[in-house]
Amino acid sequence: MSNQDLSQMGAAQVSLTQRNGIPCIHKQGAGEVEVAFYQHAAQHLDGVNTPRLLAADGCELYLEYIPNSVCLTELQTTSDVFQHLASIHCSRYRPTFEVKRHQWSLDDTTSAISSLQLAQVTQDSLKYIQSQSDALFNHDTLISGDSNEGNWGRRDNGQLVLFDWERFGFGSPAIDLAPLVSQMGTLKDYELIVEQYLCHNTLIPREELIKQLIIAKSWIVIEVTNILVGRNNPQASKYINWFREQLPTWLASVEGQL
């Protein structure tokens, strides 16, 4: 079997290979958080399916291969997804290792705005949302930190599995819900995601969770822009042009919730 590069936006090199004649994922350059997650945390997260750790050698991981992809439309309408995320968020497990520290600084915003070349009114909206972003990070709640559609799959027996845990840390459940909204989404899209999630966890009131979801979606724009530009990703200009086109209308449509 030839190695198939599965890397997306991460810095690690991910490939499909074989170990003892069995297909597996070989992740080279895995971060300390993700290595520690598979070694120490995964078995403590009740109700959450993660790939089995087959071997770890420094920053190299050999993980169970999850063969079946799951599209975003399926994730948005599958109660198992929201049950999985709620199980992470409600877990009483506390890591004994250093986890990812999530934050959104004004410097991050300034860098992204410089790349995006947005109109002043749009810049001001993003800076205002950043000023409200402590609502995302002042939480004693475990989160996956990266629940986008490329990080979910199904085993051949149908079990849903969440992988890619390099952003495992603490934060609002909204950080894990935001990637489930297609593109930038409408207010109705946010309400639908929140309503499904609240069936499994009601720790945060509905209106507050919608607000935090909008903040989290805005933060994703900043993070993605800075990662793509910082790594000279060939996709950078495509994303930047799309954000530049979408953000003014989207921000105007959600500002009443903030």
From TrEMBL:
Keywords: Kinase, Transferase. InterPro entries: Aminoglycoside_PTrfase (IPR002575), Kinase-like_dom_sf (IPR011009). Residues 34-182 form the Aminoglycoside phosphotransferase domain. One of its GO terms (molecular function) is kinase activity. The keyword Kinase applies. This is Predicted choline kinase involved in LPS biosynthesis. It comes from Vibrio coralliirubri.
